[in-house]
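ingest -> validate -> predict -> emit
validate: passed (alphabet ok, no gaps, 190 aa)
predict: started
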Amino acid sequence: MARHRTFEDATDAELLRESRRDSTAFRVLYDRHSSRIHAFHLKRTRNTGAAMELTAETFAQAWLSRERYRDHGEGTAAPWLFGIARHVLASSVRRLSIDRVAQDRLALGLAHTATTTIDETWLDGLDDDLAAALAELPDGQRRAIELRVLADGAYEDVATELECTPETARVRVHRGLSSMRRRLAGSADG
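emit:
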């Protein structure tokens, strides 16, 4: 009798690694996070069908990019998944149609809701969430992110501006982005 491994106690990073060999691991990740991702899309769209399709696309993109996931010691893939969800939502609004690129690439053949009308208001408040998360950071982390991420500066330039070493600048950016990911993942719940 074949013994099937259970992944219930595995971390999200372990699940994503194992999903390269065993799709059951990704199913556990999906079960852990799908209701929160769906709630995020439902809160934005106020449309059950659209939220379901956007959630499907989010996880299809996660499946396709699972090898690029990097565990930053957060213990959860939620920030990464919410980043994908945000991208899927913004892409759908930009295209004025539900983004199905990953679903089509995987040939999932899911039924599409033809009557979904894309509404630009789906993005209302999304940038406000980012701005609030940035504003809540300690000054050193906030300024490091502004210089490195928003202004696309090199770490050496960030270090010069902040009067620190490039390594310290990297740590500030990393810690700041990790804090923002956690905050944004938490704000998607409510």
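Residues 155 and 166 are 5 Å apart (CA to CA).
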